[in-house]
Model the fold of this input.
Amino acid sequence: MEPTVSVSELTKRFGRRTVLDGPTLRFGPGVTGLLGPNGAGKTTLLRILATTLAPDGGRVRALGLDPADRAQRTELRRRLGYLPQDPGFYPHFTVFELTEYVAILKELNDRRERHREVRRVLAEVDLTDRARTRVRGLSGGMRQRLALAQALLGDPGLLVLDEPTVGLDPEQRMRFRALVSRLGESRTVLLSTHQTEDVAALCERVVVMRGGRAVFEGTPAGLAATAAGRVWSSDRSPAASEVFWRTADGRYRTLGARPPGAVPAEPGVEDGYLLLLGGGSGDTGAAA
Amino acid sequence: MNRALVLFEARRLLRHPVPWAAAALALAVVAVRNAAWLPDLTMTAIDTVAGSSLVAAAMLVVAHLAASRDRRHGLPERLAAMPAREVARTRAVVLAAPAVGGLVATVMIFPYLLVVSASDTAAGRLDPYEAFGGVALAMLAASAGAALGRWTPWPVAPPVAIFLVAFALLGDPRGEYGGWFLPVVPAHDVSWGDRPTGWHLVYLLAAAVFCAAVALLRHGPRPARTVVALAALLVAVPAGASATASAPAPGTASRAAPGPAGPAGPADQGGQGGQGGQVCERHDGVSYCAYPAYRPWIGAWARAVRPIVSAVPRRALERIPVIRQGPAHSSALDGPNTPRTWTVWSTDPGQHGTVLAGRVAAAVTGLDATGPEGRCGGLGRARTVVALWLAGRAGPLLEAPGPDDWRGVPSGGPAPAWQLRVRMGDDGRELWFPGQLGVRYGAAEVGYARRLLGRPDADRRVRAGWDVLTAPGTTIEQALPLLGLRPEFPSGKDVPCP
Amino acid sequence: MPVTRSAPGPLPPAPALLLPLARAIDWPPLAVAVPLAAALAAVVRPGEPVDPSLGLLVLRTAALLLGAAAAFALVDAMGTGTAATPVPRWVRQWARTVMAGAVAAAGWGVTYAIVAARLAPGDALPLAGTAVEAAGCVLAALAGAALAVRHHPGRQAALAGVLVQLVLVVAARPVGDAAWPEPGAPHWDAAHVWWAAALPLFVLVLLLAHRDVR
Done:
């Protein structure tokens, strides 16, 4: 795979806190999910890739461009779609106006073409019939879709999406998955999420971050495979020190050492993720 | 009352850097301003409280932010589902913010006043009500900020409130229009008499309570809130009115009640209760009288003229009248050329000290009896040279004013080299003096005085020839051999002063 | 669904950018401040001429008020999301600065006209000096707010403008009326040379603060 985005030995500190501690990563076309606990450095990494934050050290290249160079950074921004974690809106703008404003900032200067593009992205996120609604009248999920529409403007070659599925209802999440997986056919899509199901459903690759480092890089199946032999199912509640939870069928799912009477269970992405981050017996995982 | 919520708000406000930064800046500014003057506790307290207005402004802003926090960051929806209602959060802010404001103002005001009052030269009277007024001011501002935050949560409200109040204060510093209903009345002169600080303190505290009740009334006119608001108003209005009624009109008070000029009588000598209710002390053969609270400044006045009185024969000191203190707002006491002091005194020796030294030099050489308009004058007189030499021993020797410069003062421009400009406070008032003796002289007199200042034996020559040199009829030409100088500068002629 | 690719241009046409930006600006603070400043000039000492000292105080208060209000124009609720667009941040922030500054200047101009009309015959307030002061007051607030909004989201960041103004006003107190001369003061011209010299400093701060956030 030819990488379209690469970072090497990236570092970033905020005051005395090291947020990125030298990860080296390569991303190619397709959808890559970033998983990690709060404060792992996902958002910081995405902000650096979205050119809104400069790293303290290391190198970044995206779509063949170096964001450290002003001209190349501007060029990269022309080919970039970014959905920040907290996008912000002008509440008195209509949906169409707000999207058009971002289109203007993306240098879509031809008015007719810009309007066509705005209508296209609003249709992509199913907001066509809300085009004349003021932003203050939108629900949280609709606002998230509006922000996603803005990220899609201009047919970006690189999409950086920070927790894009927050606030979406199940139907919209399905639509989002379909949209992103289609975009991922020809573009590089990086998304951070806490939803392991999203990663399992639409990401070809997954990076797990912890403490500013990448602790896993591979496929979702590979992440699930790391939990093989450490996921158990039992009909009795295990010891309190284990990471376990009661599933819909009334059985207990346990990560880590085998509890008495438990049988092996099929591991998933979530199991691999939790075990990677220290869940399971012998570590300080929390009972769920 | 939710005690935990009050403590939470208090801790947050205490950790806010803006009020503390405001206190540090205000303190620095007050200290720098006051360093220019001999300490006067009356004025220092007023200035410090006026400086604490910055703390009050900061408290207004942060209290507004705290009270309007509910309306930001999507909090309203989340907070609406809380068992603690909105009024509990308002109550927490209106209790915590004034307490924190009062604490920050206390930290800013009182240690500084204590340090100043410990100075040997600290004059005036420290009015505790004045100082507590600064604390109450910060409390009022915090309450007002909370009320504004509840009624007008827009962030532009604090700047609007701050600038409008600042406009009222700066446009009316003496309280002539708003009276003592203004939160600060920064202009004062000790001659105006006592300030109604007690009533004003009551007014400020009642107004703070009123604002707190107004903040709570945002959540509905409950009986307790309404009663508190009305009660606070019933206290604040009469207190403000009493303060306004008992405030002396500027310039009408009469702590300055000077007696006639002349040598110090026996009653004045070193004792209390001199003429005009002043206390007098004798230093180096010269009598100084001060308002009782300003006695610590007498030493500074004596130091200013010591280079003069130490250079003249003892018998000449009898020519120096009692040096009396007068109000800062009055330029004349016993006559325009009489040596005098004021209720302000700069630490810069080139200011009031130079004026006093010049007048003492003129007096000790007998040049003190006429006005500056020149019925008689010092042109061509030996004693003018001696007086200028004496003044030059005590401080800077100015250039000579031109013939027309004696008649008036220029209307603008920087101070010319022949003019002495003395600041009479921080409010921009200045006294302008042509020359430094109060009698007319010219470039020749200044030139010879400079030559004399350059002679190491000048002291001995002046003492030896004192009677001749200071005689009214002795001309410069006659004096030059006595002074060891040669003719250099053509001098004019004046009618000799008697 | 077909995806069209738009050809990017260097900068969007001014109206296309300025119109939505003008709508995005938080105008209510200026909508409060402009009439308030004018009203202050109109109602102070009603029924009698305004003396130059009071007129000058009105103009200075108006300038501070308008500057503090204009500072709110620099708060960009969408700053995070639009930071990654090719139109540079400085273009957007300077457009906001110029628009808000122009409205503040117009508001101050109206205030000046009212004050000038209310002066007693023979009295005058020099326009150049007072205007330079006003520009300094407005630019100081804009500069303070520009620095704050660069680092902090939310409208309250704009209050940094008024804090900067207060700091400058208070910090100038030790020099007495040297920084804020009275009308006809001997150092009026000299003081305003200093004011004029300070303006580029505020502009420099704005230049730095309006840079790209990265």
